[in-house]
């Protein structure tokens, strides 16, 4: 009878050891994926921040608040690089306390990803807080377009983005100003239908969507890592109990 119990416990311990190894290496692989995603997010957000042409647009439009979300995602990316490395170490050595700290850090990373994405999209998408700022800048440029440097800035925006006025050609008609040449299509001669507020917002939105998608992918990976870490901690605790009973 005792030998049967010992055999049963031995089989249970062996099965548990295999399960621990499976979860451990799965967690290790997901941490590698998280590290690579964090590196990609870091590279992309740094590129957004230092891109010379893009930075010039931010300066002209005076929408530096766009960078708030970018800074948060840069901090998230650096944090993920460190946490993912520590998570790999904690998983491989089966360190219970390290896994507990890692789980807490996964929650922090998840919240940072959600918060950073929300802030970035709130300051870069259609009908967000960025549009009134762009509208204010564009209206000032149009009102003072007879002077420099407003005239040059307005011409550069409308030629580069292929837009006209703040909301459209009617902005010049309402101010009783002639429609600038750069407001017209060089081929058809017709005025651009879209205003610069919408066109510039869509320009910012295109960059933000990629960063937001990467951050949300990281958030999903953090959830998976947190669940795997909890499962591994429970399995290690159960293994300790089995070893204690056998002794």
Task: Explain this structure.
79% of the residues lie in helices and 0% in strands. The chain is built from eight helices and no strands. Helix 5 (130-143) packs across helix 6 and helix 5 (130-143) runs antiparallel to helix 8. By secondary structure, the chain is mostly helical. The two termini are 18 Å apart.
List the helices and strands and how they pair.
Elements (H helix, E strand, L loop, with lengths): L1 H49 L1 H10 L4 H28 L2 H27 L7 H14 L6 H12 L8 H5 L21 H51 L1
Helix pairs in contact: 1-3, 1-8, 3-4, 4-8, 5-6, 5-8
Organism: Chironomus riparius
InterPro entries: Tetraspanin/Peripherin, Tetraspanin_animals, Tetraspanin_EC2_sf
Protein name: Tetraspanin
Residue ranges: pLDDT <50 for 5 or more in a row?
Answer: none
Helix content: over 70%
Shape: rod-shaped
Distance between the first and last residues' Cα: 18 Å
What profile does the largest beta sheet have? none
Overall pLDDT: 87
Q: What kind of assembly state do the chains in view correspond to?
A: single chain
Helical segment tally? 8
Question: What is the C-alpha radius of gyration, as a whole number of Å?
Answer: 28 Å
Proportion of residues in β-strands: under 5%
Structural class from helices and strands? mainly alpha
How many distinct beta strands?
A: 0
Features:
Tetraspanin; rod-shaped; 8 helices; Tetraspanin/Peripherin; 0% strand; Tetraspanin_animals; 247 residues; Tetraspanin_EC2_sf; single chain; mainly alpha
